[in-house]
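Protein modeling request. Please complete all fields; requests missing the sequence field cannot be processed.
Requester role: graduate student
Desired output: 3D structure, token encoding
Chains: 1
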Amino acid sequence: MSTVTAIVDLDIEGPTISRHLYGHFAEHLGRCIYGGFWVGEDSTIPNEGGIRLDVVQALRALNIPNLRWPGGCFADEYHWKDGIGPRDRRPRMVNTHWGDVEENNHFGTHEFMALCELLGTEPYISGNVGSGTVQEMSEWVEYLTRDGDSPMARLRRANGRDQPWQVKFWGIGNETWGCGGNMRAEYSADLARQYATYCRDHGDNKLYRIASGAAGDDYKWTRTLMEQINCFGCVATPRTFFQAISVHHYTMTGTWESKGSATGFDTEGYYRTMASAQQIDRILTGHSTVMDIYDPGRKVGLVLDEWGTWWDVEPGTNPGFLFQQNTMRDALVASTHFDIFHKHAARLYMANIAQTVNVLQAMILTDGDALVLTPTYHVFEMNKGHQDATSLAVHLRTEDARRRVGDAELDTLSASASIKDGAVLISVSNLDAEEPVEVTLDLRGGAVGEPTARLLTADRLQVHNSPDSPEAVVPRPFDGVKPTGQGLVLTLPPHSFVTVQAPVARAH
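Delivered output (508 residues):
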């Protein structure tokens, strides 16, 4: 058994962990919208206006902070006016990106906003730059957010909504380097300035415009965008064409054509996955470093609005629907990502897991009227106390908890901490597949009271939840936390995730 010491200074506060780091993503892809969020008003599944209520209830328990829609690649073939007005009069369309299926546009702008209201979450709308127009996106902003008398406000009222909505987050395109137009960075950056100019602030609705950014470690793309708003090394406040730039990165271990099974993997495959997941630290550091040169005051946000694992689809399902199972391995990918997100809280403002329901690393899987909460869902729920908390640096002595994985060095212990409302929340992941680890939490600058802890693990990494076994992987109370003279000590089982919460009396 390895031993690790984690030093946490309870009285030295870091940046706030934005609640938007726990954001979600819903694309018109497979069964995410239709059959996931939307079942229609005539469904026997309990719904409100066609929106599936068991899904809403499950997501509300996560304090879901935002929801990105309608894509993804789908966003750049979506024309929003086709999704408003009486549903039986809406034109149909072909979803050419995902399964080449026909859609009836029954889930559109009003349905999405109703969903966000039921969830108590902020909408994040990704606009069409790839096949749309500046006018189209400008009018969408007006339709949603303008009060008073204007063409789009009148159209909204004709469709049943008198008052405007508050819609802060707007994506200026999606993956313009790929499915969003196969553009060069320079051309995409020019379009970002142009589109952002005509996405107006109406009334008290102030937009947070997010320019379509890089894939993975394409730091040149980020540099090109940052050059649009400031000069190299300048200390002046950046121009406000856009308030953030995005980046996308997925955790994969195979090739694009053969990504590997979501459930049929061995221990070696697991370790390669975790080494891949930890690469997000290097990627975020790289983009942040480039941004610091042009924006040393960190006024511009970095948004990781697509992340998660990507495996081969489950056998027998539509390859274009991206339906995959979700195991303890996926849960540990999520817990590791959150530790890294918290580390980058000074620059990273938002992150959106791909995707919320029935697609890729989903929170929820539905099968008819059955609903399953995945192991990844439970990581989000266990970690929700970090939302809008003050980050605390965690210094690890992990010489004992490392292993070589190919050319990479994998830390098999991951941790982060925050403080809010007089309590500390510490998240710890043991990434060792086979061995427990003893962790000493060396807590300085304050005294902690009686801790409570929860554990998420399974007897095998491949275990997952299903309609027949919905609680194979669920959090349980953990009594393995013991006080010491300097803090707490706990022994984590192999491949496990633990959260520890305790009241704090700070030293004076």
